Amino acid sequence: MTKDEIRRNYETRMTKQPIRHPGPIRHSGFGFLSSFSIRISSFLWASSLVIQRLVQIRLTGALRELGITILALHLGVALFGAASSEARAAELYREPYRPQLHFTPGRNWMNDPNGMVFYDGEYHLFYQSNPFADKWGHMSWGHAVSSDLVHWEHLPLALSEEDGVMIFSGCAVVDRNNTSGFGRNGRPPLVAIYTGHYTSRPLQNEHIAYSTDRGRTWTKYSGNPVLDIGEKDFRDPKVFWHEPTGRWVMAVAWPTQRKVRFYASPNLKNWTHLSDFGPAGSTQGIWECPDLFPLRVEGKMKQTKWVLIVNVGSGAPAGGSGCQYFVGDFDGKQFNVDHILIADAPSRPASEAALWADFGPDFYAAVSWNDLPKRDGRRIWIGWMSNWTYANDVPTAPWRGAMSIPRELALRETAGGFGLLQKPVRELKQLRGPLHQFNGGAIEEANAWLERNTIRSGPLELIFELESVSDGNEGVKLFKGAQEETVVGVDRKQGRVYVDRRRSGNVTFHPKFSGVQDAPLPACDRRVKLHIFVDACSLEVFVNDGERVFTDLTFPSEHSRGVEFFGPKEGAKISSLKVWSLNSSWKNP
Ligand code: FRU
């Protein structure tokens, strides 16, 4: 694809209005009527949107005098909906392909994770949402909270498209010192910093909104935008408090320039340009959704380096969109990269040398949580588990879009420099069912053991080591059926790890979905450790403690549930195999 084609595709995405515009939703002031949890059915969900819309009419339209009558009607509709919702509630979150470990909206479209912040015991997860349809459009911020990163409660839309301004990606911070002045009664406000995308003219700029009730309701700042350089593409601010300089720092993407710009502010309202980073690393695709944070170096209590995350709209190793990163230092003004390391995808030209967070096709717009307590000390992120190449066509209903599992980040120092390590957050362990353990043996023995223990693909976690004395090709086949399989393999001769989803099930919904993705095998002796999470329509593979990661969507047919190891008959061994089937994270789906 030429750059022009890529650009055109992107512009189609940015301007396409796939459905009739239903008009803005305003916070009704009757939020309690429309608040719901995931256990309430789709019917109630839809009626709550209707209620919001009708209440808006009541407040603004000619029907003002009939307000009370209409309100009574709304209550009737909601109560009727609640009663008849019982049966449907049992179905929601049990649909084919519905992820059980991963966050998904009850219905409709979702892309990037936004505004992730920890406040008052809650992890907030906002996300790019189209509240009206299952394709991209009318971007607004959906919202959910969790006390453990695993069980999520859905909350009403936090920020809605309004007056021709869509709510694009961004972040949220706890303004502890009330620098913004939005705080009330000595309690710090939550402040969201996001991109306003104008639908009637080519402009994007940065806006803020605040909440003084633990993120339950949001007010857009009357002085918006707070940062405007008059550009058509200028988006996805990520803001954090920079302790040494005592001010806010923003990393924001200038996509077409392949640059991340840094700004500083004393109060989140006035921003001063500090410096730019880029172009560097992978520059084929536009740059989006940056993040910048200090990160621990594995095994060194005191050493940290700064990591700059840059998501790229196309040109990632598995094709389409992906997530690259840079390691270096940040002095409060400027990010200096250590050096651009060897290309991780050997077939790519040196000019495209980049470090990739994930070698699967389905990990994008990944950014990290702000404001985790210091005593926790972790840096945790998630990504959107899809790819712009086919995101609008993925065969799921009534929702489209899922998040990856939350992952804890660290850096590992290797001969080639610092590399990102990702591991599933420990909170996921609570979903484990009983442990099945195999103490090691040849491939055939391991397969007989799997059979005896009726290990099936579905929500499942596997940890094992592949040990081999040969240069063979070995691994595991998941979602195996008569005609189907998704293969996770290690090809020692070629020095690569791979995921092959060519025969994974429904691969025809988009011509670019099928394929094999690979990554260079990390330096290791004869053992390769694989940690795999299998959900209803995905795999996440962590190789050697997350030195390489693959995130892959997969849509097997209902009967393809087998798990089977493969490899050379002689000299290959599966050792320390642990398997857990996983419970659903939706408490009473
Ligand atoms: C990344 C992205 C962001 C933008 C948002 C719009 O996937 O393109 O750059 O803010 O999606 O939904």
Q: Kindly report the name of the CATH homologous superfamily of the largest domain.
A: Glycosyl hydrolase domain, family 43
Give the integer mean of the pLDDT values: 86
Report low-confidence residues grouped into runs of 5 or more: 1-11, 15-83, 341-352
Could you estimate the helical fraction of the residues in percent? 10-25%
List the ions, cofactors and other small molecules found in this model.
beta-D-fructofuranose
Q: Which geometry do the CA atoms define?
A: globular
Tally of contiguous helical segments: 5
Taken together, the total number of domains comes to 3
**CATH class placement of the largest domain:** Mainly Beta
Radius of gyration: 24 Å
Predict the CATH topology of the largest domain: Tachylectin-2, Chain A
**How many β-strand runs?**
34
Can you summarize the main beta sheet? 7 strands, antiparallel
Beta-strand percentage?
A: 35-45%
Distance between the termini: 43 Å
Structural class: mainly beta
- For the record, the CATH architecture of the largest domain stands as 5 Propeller
Relevant terms:
single chain; 589 residues; mainly beta; Tachylectin-2, Chain A; Jelly Rolls; seven-stranded antiparallel β-sheet; five-stranded mixed β-sheet; 34 strands; disordered N terminus; binds beta-D-fructofuranose
Which helices and strands, and how do they pair?
Blueprint: H1 3-15, H2 31-34, H3 42-60, H4 67-91, E1 108-119, E2 122-130, E3 140-146, E4 153-159, E5 165-174, E6 190-198, E7 204-211, E8 219-220, E9 235-242, E10 247-254, E11 259-265, E12 272-277, E13 287-297, E14 300-312, E15 322-330, E16 335-337, E17 355-356, E18 364-368, E19 380-384, E20 399-400, E21 407-414, E22 417-424, E23 432-438, E24 441-442, H5 443-452, E25 460-468, E26 473-480, E27 486-491, E28 496-500, E29 516-520, E30 527-535, E31 538-543, E32 548-553, E33 562-566, E34 572-582
Parallel strand pairs: 1-20
Antiparallel strand pairs: 1-2, 2-3, 3-4, 5-6, 6-7, 7-8, 9-10, 10-11, 11-12, 13-14, 14-15, 15-16, 15-17, 18-19, 19-21, 21-22, 23-34, 24-34, 25-30, 25-34, 26-27, 26-33, 27-28, 28-29, 30-31, 31-32
